[in-house]
Write a structure and sequence with these properties.
Blueprint lengths: L1 E6 L5 H12 L3 E3 L1 H4 L13 H12 L5 E4 L16 E5 L3 H16 L2 H4 L1 H15 L11 H8 L6 E4 L5 H12 L1
Parallel strand pairs: 1-3, 1-4, 2-3, 4-5
Helix pairs in contact: 1-8, 4-6
Length: about 180
């Protein structure tokens, strides 16, 4: 079973993907690890698109089952539209997502996101970008882009459109798998 879990930043795609992969005892791949170069300040340099596609295909090609989660693949390559057996779209209201993201950023980077001018700018730009998801003012990953992309998949798409406990979401996905 090849499963892709996506949604807005802060919607729980990484957490859900890891939890589901653990429950199914299959590998989990975080698309952010392919999208972004490994740099001292994470999430600042995008990887070459051809290289990231080659990397993720190389890691998954020989596997019958895996979960990909984390970031969003709409602009990566049309290959992904037929690469999965199930796609899961997670949506939660913006106020919950933004609160989670602010807590996550503080946990990851500490007070540096406030005390270091460059890191504060990066933090504020990130939060502003995430806030634009629902009203389509962000670049790239937006709700309308995701809704449009959902229509293109060649497999079932499960949409979980509320903030549910992780095990409840896992149970819904497992029911969908059969």
């Amino acid at each position: 079973m090849k499963i892709y879990i996506f949604g807005a930043a802060g919607s729980g795609t990484t957490t859900q993907g890891l939890h589901l992969a653990m429950n199914l005892n299959i590998p989990y791949f975080d698309s952010d690890n392919y999208f972004w170069e490994d740099t001292p300040v994470p999430f600042t340099i995008r990887r070459d698109p051809q290289h990231r596609n080659t990397m993720v295909k190389s890691d998954t090609n020989k596997l019958d089952s895996y979960v990909i989660g984390g970031g969003s693949l709409p602009n990566w390559n049309n290959f992904w539209l037929s690469a999965f057996d199930l796609v899961v779209f997670l949506y939660i209201p913006a106020e919950i997502r933004i609160k989670r993201l602010k807590e996550r950023e503080l946990e990851r980077y500490g007070n540096e996101i406030f005390s270091n001018q460059a890191r504060n700018l990066q933090y504020n730009e990130f939060i502003a970008w995430c806030t634009g998801y629902d009203n389509d003012t962000a670049s790239g990953r937006t709700l309308s882009v995701h809704r449009h992309w959902i229509q293109k998949f060649n497999c079932p798409v499960l949409q979980i459109l509320e903030d549910l406990p992780i095990q409840t979401k896992t149970d819904l996905i497992l029911q969908q798998i059969g």
